[in-house]
């Protein structure tokens, strides 16, 4: 074969490859983030975590020193996913006795709200006691690569309303690692560190991945950091997967998520087993290492966030659930509840159960894009909306040494209240150099060992609660709630006392209340910080339908801004 013929064949092959690549360019882009992750952060074999050892002997007994504090946060757990409020999946054999047990031993917050209807913003509220839009955290961090594929992923001829992608804004967005909470914010951990606490983070962070933004620079002494989003490798025999092909987010996650963690900013390695159980193993180990000193643990689970992946052990324990997707999801709930039980048992085993303040919650309501309709029942809406289903979260607290058991707290509370409550429990004070939006909940609770005659508590002051996502904004005060939607331009006004499931929009029939709450919204948002990064994806969310259900022109919807 002549040299020129060889060159011609090579050129033809190259052209064919380039043509094939061009024809499949969206598929390649869809997988590119995962490939980049593999190149940048190769994962080593599982390794042991050498948690810092506290004193071998305690200077004070556990009941004489400041309380240990543990915040356990589930991800995307809907209010109907637990049996705490009388709902849940007990009929399917998925009860949550350990989550419920925190409420029985302490208090159930029956009108508890997330700081936002999406994870990053909610977590920033929880860890600061402040509305995150005060410091520019308003949208979900989204990789710029997502803009390149979003137009294709979100295009479906059956959709009534388009997803809008602003490619210019996407190009100007900082790298994903740089999207997070400013280091100038003072976190729960930083405030507790000043009180002598040893602070431990385990699990999800989602508030930035640069060294300056990671937990170790935000007051945490140790951090077992979830670096990506698989519970197990996709083809691992220990896992059972449920893929939702109708969901663009799901189709993006499966090829791009990896099974990896890091410790104190070190190199990535694979966890030893199913992620929820692994984080629990390490939480139990860290409790044992710190039993002789006050500690704060922020155990931020990935469960039950997509991708839907259960351990085979939990999946096999639920043969009565015939629908595969619901069975996987139920198994994931089962693992989160077991985690709570194991943490509580570890406290008891180490003699710490009486003087440990434990708070359990979820970062927001469950999403409609998993295709399970009853996750937030009886409330309307999903994660990404400001309807009750997107904002109401299961929340419980116990502190046996200080809080009476079996309490039902019915006033509205929020994630912004967590940090002021924790800091008060530790004997500290919130910073005076910035606006603090949350309140100390302990003052409104019945103390332990109090008689009905001696028990004194002060109800929370009546206050508005606010939410913000671009031009979609909401306020709730007394029994009234206003949601202002920008797309469509519409107001939703509800009397939650008579209509807790938000079925009757009173915006047209009660203009005086609409004007009053609109003025509250305008006053609150005036002068707030500009977002630290832009929203470049606008996506319609149907309030009453899951993503896989057929859409109708009569269906109500709002737009979510990433």
What does this structure look like?
- With 562 residues, the protein is an alpha/beta fold.
- It has a domain of 361 residues: Alkaline Phosphatase, subunit A.
- 28% of the residues lie in helices and 16% in strands.
- The protein is built from 14 helices and 20 strands.
- It has a 9-stranded mixed β-sheet with strand order 8-6-5-9-1-11-12-2-13, sandwiched between helices.
- Helix 2 runs antiparallel to helix 5 and helix 9 packs parallel to helix 11.
- The radius of gyration is 24 Å and the shape is globular.
- About 2% of the residues have low confidence.
Structural class, judged by helices and strands? alpha/beta
Helicity level: 25-40%
Unreliable residue stretches: 20-28
Give the strand order of the largest sheet, numbering strands 1, 2, ... along the chain.
8-6-5-9-1-11-12-2-13
Task: Quickly count the helices.
Answer: 14
- CA radius of gyration is 24 Å
Major β-sheet annotation: 9 strands, mixed
In short:
With about 550 residues, the chain is α/β, with parallel strands linked by helices.
Strand and helix layout:
Blueprint: H1 3-23, H2 25-40, E1 68-74, H3 97-105, E2 107-109, E3 112-113, H4 119-128, H5 145-153, E4 164-165, H6 167-171, H7 188-193, E5 198-203, E6 222-226, E7 239-242, H8 248-256, E8 261-263, H9 275-289, E9 295-300, E10 308-311, H10 312-316, H11 324-349, E11 356-362, H12 388-391, E12 396-398, E13 407-409, E14 413-414, H13 418-425, E15 465-469, E16 472-477, E17 480-485, E18 490-495, H14 511-525, E19 537-542, E20 557-561
Parallel strand pairs: 1-9, 1-11, 2-13, 3-14, 5-6, 5-9
Antiparallel strand pairs: 2-12, 4-19, 6-8, 7-10, 11-12, 15-16, 16-17, 17-18, 19-20
Helix pairs in contact: 2-5, 9-11
